[in-house]
């Protein structure tokens, strides 16, 4: 029996790698992104692609309706689209903070609301929400990003409690640092969000250096396999991590918050 997955944000990084990996595993893959030129090779690989703006309900509905009309079912939804609106909390425009929540949280809710009726009718389905260890582990400049991911984790847990009686599960994947454009874009945003003669200019350099020293982490292809496990486990877990290091950092931040804060303070000196 053919299985069907919808993946948001497939133009690059984890989303792109996941679209290719799920296709290789025999899934019919539907997905999209705003950067149309990035979708050509995926389309040639047999992935059903289209322009997608996750903040536009009409755009989302077009993708969901297409998958249902062509396949008659949706087995998995992977809410992958997201980005980092970095910058000092004193200076990030509230309009930019609202956009961060719009993309990283409210768009997830919008897509999920459109998919759930089909999954309830089927009596099965899996919602995989791509969060971050940044939902629990934090650093300066990432305040709004961390807030969206912490909210996404709680949202996913509540959703799971509501839909599991219908045969549907909602789970979270929490990647750490990745070998992708994510950090580059996040720090480009951080600098754009600085006001003229900002007192936080040196902090941006320091945090970016810290990220660089920590390393690049998992590849997109490695994370695609984590996504696949979260989507297909017979007995799904609430949280999925790529490595013991990622999981360990989350546990330290959650269970020993003072120690985590002290270490972070020393690193920022």
UniProtKB/TrEMBL annotation:
* Keywords in alphabetical order: Oxidoreductase
Which GO molecular function, any one, fits this protein according to its record?
A: oxidoreductase activity
Taken from the record, one Pfam family name reads adh_short
Establish whether keyword Membrane is in the entry: no
Write down the Gene3D superfamilies for this protein, in alphabetical order. NAD(P)-binding Rossmann-like Domain (3.40.50.720)
InterPro entries reported in the protein's UniProt record? NAD(P)-bd_dom_sf, SDR_fam
| Similarity comment: family membership | Belongs to the short-chain dehydrogenases/reductases (SDR) family.
For this protein, the record's PANTHER family field holds:
NADPH-DEPENDENT 1-ACYLDIHYDROXYACETONE PHOSPHATE REDUCTASE (PTHR44169)
- What is the protein name stated in its UniProt record? Short-chain dehydrogenase/reductase
Which organism does this sequence originate in? Answer: Companilactobacillus formosensis
Instruction: Read off the lineage from the record.
Output: Bacteria, Bacillati, Bacillota, Bacilli, Lactobacillales
